[in-house]
């Protein structure tokens, strides 16, 4: 499901990229790169959780979920920052 959402998000970003300014894209890309790094950390945490059991596994999975939520929030902040740049340019 998450990969579907990521693909859908990527497709919408590509379709909107044609009408975005370079500055707007730069801002959004910076946030997107940060969010991707958080997603990678979450994936590593989930892989680690697979090797744990009990409370340790639950704690690692919760940490991974928190990282994924932070990545989502970072992407949303990036979109908002890019929108702010776009509004300043118009």
From TrEMBL:
Keyword check for Amino-acid biosynthesis: no
Residue stretches in coiled coil: none
Record's compositionally biased regions (Low complexity): 55-66
Ranges of Basic and acidic residues composition bias in the record: 67-90
UniProt KW keywords: Signal
Annotated region described as Disordered, given as residue ranges: 53-90
PROSITE patterns for this protein: PROKAR_LIPOPROTEIN
Signal peptide as annotated in the record: 1-17
Protein name listed in UniProt: Lipoprotein
């Amino acid at each position: 499901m998450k990969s579907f959402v990521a693909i859908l998000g990527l497709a919408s970003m590509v379709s909107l990229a044609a009408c975005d300014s370079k500055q707007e894209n730069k801002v959004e890309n910076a946030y997107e790169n940060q969010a991707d790094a958080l997603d990678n950390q979450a994936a590593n945490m989930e892989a680690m959780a697979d090797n744990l059991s009990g409370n340790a596994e639950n704690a690692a999975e919760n940490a991974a979920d928190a990282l994924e939520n932070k990545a989502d929030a970072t992407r949303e902040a990036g979109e908002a920052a890019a929108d702010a740049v776009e509004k300043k340019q118009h």
